[in-house]
Amino acid sequence: MLFAAYLNALHILYRDYGLEPLRTYPPASAADLAAAEAALGFALDPALKATWQSANGSDEWQTVFARPGYITGYSFLSLADSLREREYMAHRAPQYDGYEQEQPRDPRICSGWYQAGWLPFAAFSAPDLLLIADHSPTASGQCGQIIAFSHDPDTISYVCTDFATLLEQSLATIREHPEDCLPEE
């Protein structure tokens, strides 16, 4: 699924539930995307990059994504907010030295609480819940896979294989649980 089709489906859901229209911000510029890739030291996942080329974030309280299997809506971070959340993850990582999450981590995800290739793109009450594009998976993972950080208990979890899959699963989750995922009026 492409992001434009996904957004169109979300606009319809917002309308059908009588909500204030979904607002996304104007696209990130080519210069901003190039600067981000230079600062990150890697090319953005093409689907995520295309997403920022069509919209550069959403209002913080508006749901753009939902994590499959959970009933919480996530806002879409702007490119600048995404880079800031990544920086915050790097700064918080040392406090996790010696901390083990309750469930063993999926073998597709690198160990630790920060990897240079992790880039948050969606949040609920950031930094409590983050959806992250993983550009540095283990050998058994896939570049561009989607992972999640959840606070309390703190975990890094596998979500799905890629951004397109997330869009399909996210839309299905929002449609199945609109009262939990969509914002209240």
Task: Please tag this protein with its features.
about 180 residues, alpha+beta, SMI1/KNR4-like, six-stranded antiparallel beta sheet, 6 helices, 6 strands
For the record, the count of structural domains works out to: 1
Largest sheet strand order: 1-2-3-4-5-6
What does the radius of gyration come to? 16 Å
What is the residue-mean pLDDT, rounded to a whole number? 96
Organism: Cardiobacterium valvarum
Pfam families: SMI1_KNR4
Protein name: SMI1 / KNR4 family
Domain Knr4/Smi1-like: 27-169
Describe the structure.
Residues 27-169 form the Knr4/Smi1-like domain. The protein is α+β, with helices and mostly antiparallel strands. It has a single domain, classed as SMI1/KNR4-like, CATH 3.40.1580.10. The chain contains 6 helices and 6 strands. It has a 6-stranded antiparallel sheet with strand order 1-2-3-4-5-6. The longest helix has 14 residues, at 3-16.
How does the SSE layout of this entry go?
Layout: H1 3-16, H2 30-40, H3 46-54, E1 65-66, E2 73-76, H4 79-92, E3 118-124, E4 129-134, E5 145-150, E6 155-160, H5 163-176, H6 178-181
Antiparallel strand pairs: 1-2, 2-3, 3-4, 4-5, 5-6
InterPro entries: Knr4/Smi1-like_dom, Knr4/Smi1-like_sf
Protein name: SMI1 / KNR4 family
